[in-house]
Amino acid sequence: MIQSILRRNGLQCQRLPTPDRCAHEIGKEYCSNGLCNPAYFTIGSLIEYLRSLEPAQTREEIVRNYAFFTAGSNGPCRFGMYEAEFRAALNAAGYNGFRLLTFQQDHGVNASSGQSGFQFSVDFGMDALHAFILGDVLNYLHHRLRPYELQEGDSERMMEVLASDAGLYLETTKRFEFSESAPEILRPFLERHRAARAYRVSNTTGKILTHLYGRKLRASLGKCRERMNRMEVDWLRVKPVVKVIGEFWAQQTEGDGNYQMFQFLEKEGAEVSVEPISNWVLYLLNQANQRGIVRSRLLPHQAPWSKPVTAFRARLSHWLKRCMFAAGKGIYQGHYARLEKALLGASHPLPSQLEIAALANPYYSSSLRGGEGHLEVGKNLYYTTHQLCHMVLAVKPFGCLPSLQSDAVQAGLAERFPEMVFLAVETAAEGEVHAYSRVQMALAEARVKAQNEFETALRSARQPLEEIRRFVSQHPELRSPLFRVTRRSGVVSTAANFVLDVDELMSGSGDRGSISRRDPAPGSLRSEPGPSHQEA
Ligand code: SF4
In percent, how much of the chain has pLDDT > 70? Predict the structure, then answer.
């Protein structure tokens, strides 16, 4: 999707292959010692790719024709040094002067040449917003469906089609232009005044509104829903839900950088709950807002009321910034819900950043920066206390200091929350056998939890499992990826919730039928709707 946005803006773009162990070795050869793993993997992957171009192009041509676009930061962990490391490693590998564009989390795009080459526009920004959100929703869907697909590879194929449809939409759909949407008679006049302030404000407002509320994207997502309905799933497979958290890069990559942990967990029979990038975006907004609140305590000293105009201006600027953060957060969350609903038929709110910070704060201050900050501790507590997964797995690269700090705190939490099944795995370029065996041990506990839950659900149900299976085989909508399995409070696994849903349908009771749901027996499963799948 990002490729499509850049292509639409006239830039040829190609993503680097997922870094593998060979990339790590190349990275180690050209980077300084003592860096964290993501640096070795990503720098090595870039050099490996540039070398693959060499038979067809000289180094000078490669340096002239290519630029590398990546994320950067001024943050307090080693991420802040990545840009400098990239340059040093590229020089050492013989690509002197190779251009780097870094997207700074808080400062936009920096370019080594001074010219980013990007034409920032409202359309570009809104398309990027769509790409982030749709990427998250598709990623969630992919991992949600893969363990339950009836035909192996169906979810993979479906994701490819959905992602390419979304990319095509982003690349080719016509955008709003004020002059084109006005009545014919006014168009020449508007065209002549395109540079006028009033025209630009109206045009920008129209673009934002059509991006957020227009029908085109929702219609395109509606078609994706139809495609999804062609796939079949078996929701009755009993699988422990494993929430994967950890350092940002390690929890997102799907290659050797995290020992291919998602595939391993699925092979071991788990349902993986992936972390959306949107949580990171909301975390950044929340942190910026919190820093503003802390700084505002200095206002009485920095801008005392003895100088009323300065004092008023300082306070006004503070409140405007807070309003902007609140509006940014509201727009992002609202749009996330809209797109998710258009694609999945239901929206699942993202976890509250304020709640995550409040949960983490007694153990890990939310004002500490670097890496994931308080998020690892906060998320572990959030998903455990809300009973949204059977196990939390935190993956972090070798040498990640902020994650090591979180792990020290997590060790204490395990004693305070005995129901917590938590495992932290540090990923180096080798040593996956040891990591896999630790994951298998923790997973055994999670599997028992999931199986017990399923058996309790069956005991609560009025129908035996054979009857439930027969009913499902007669109703294709129950084998659809779009069937919404109700998340019940305290019931984590999909299979247990699905049994209760089908039981209600068969008995004609509960939310799904015309029913009066029978009261659950004491100690049995409750059936009120719980937190969302996305939160899980
Ligand atoms: S969070 Fe950890 S692994 Fe990621 S860049 Fe910072 S120090 Fe490195």
Answer: 92
